[in-house]
Amino acid sequence: MERTLVMIRHAKSSWANPLQSDFERPLNDRGEQDAPMMGERLKKRNMQPDVIIASTAKRAKQTAKKIAKAVGYDEDKIVWYEKLYHCIPSVFEEVLYEVADGAKTVYIVAHNPGITEFVNELSDKFCTDNMPTCGMVGIRFEAEQWNEFSRTKKEVILFDYPKNVT
């Protein structure tokens, strides 16, 4: 079965309150605009999610909800994982192994530096120095189950970000 994973870095966050914890930082105005715009781009590409998984950090939650709304996904069905907050690349695979095998397309909304490291490990034909805020990398692969992810040949089919002129 053909499967698609879309890795999404949270949108631009606010640094207006220097005393605020990193975990509680919200989106700034640009992030509030970029997240739904990027969701619209995914919708135009017919990359509808069967599952959206996101970090529980405030800016990732806000990003996931705005993208979900833009693509017509019920935000009450977003799966939240605290362990995605500033995680290492192997945690993304752990999370994927828990995805129901009926799901064909999965979005994961998370953070740098782990997300950049993870997407750079997926294909020898793709590399980015830094996943931009609200940037997306789409990966297509063949597998009967999500727990086969690490053993499959992957193809990067999408690299998009808000300042990318499409």
- Indicate the structural class: alpha/beta
CATH superfamily: Phosphoglycerate mutase-like
Q: Which whole number gives the mean pLDDT?
A: 96
- What distance lies between the first and last C-alpha atoms, to the nearest angstrom? 29 Å
* Named CATH topology: Rossmann fold
Number of domains: 1
Query: How many helix segments?
Result: 4
CATH class: Alpha Beta
In short:
The chain has 166 residues and is an alpha/beta fold. The protein has helices at 29-44, 58-71, 89-97, 114-120, and strands spanning 2-9, 51-55, 79-81, 105-110, 136-142, 154-160. The protein has a six-stranded mixed β-sheet with strand order 3-2-4-1-5-6, with helices on both faces.
What is the topology?
Elements: E1 2-9, H1 29-44, E2 51-55, H2 58-71, E3 79-81, H3 89-97, E4 105-110, H4 114-120, E5 136-142, E6 154-160
Parallel strand pairs: 1-4, 2-3, 2-4
Antiparallel strand pairs: 1-5, 5-6
Protein model, in words:
The structure is a single chain. This protein has a single domain (2-160), classed as Rossmann fold, CATH 3.40.50.1240. The two termini are 29 Å apart. The protein has helices at residues 29-44, 58-71, 89-97, 114-120; strands at 2-9, 51-55, 79-81, 105-110, 136-142, 154-160. It has 166 residues and is of the alpha/beta class. Strand 2 (51-55), helix 2 and strand 3 form a beta-alpha-beta unit. The protein has a six-stranded mixed β-sheet with strand order 3-2-4-1-5-6, with helices on both faces.
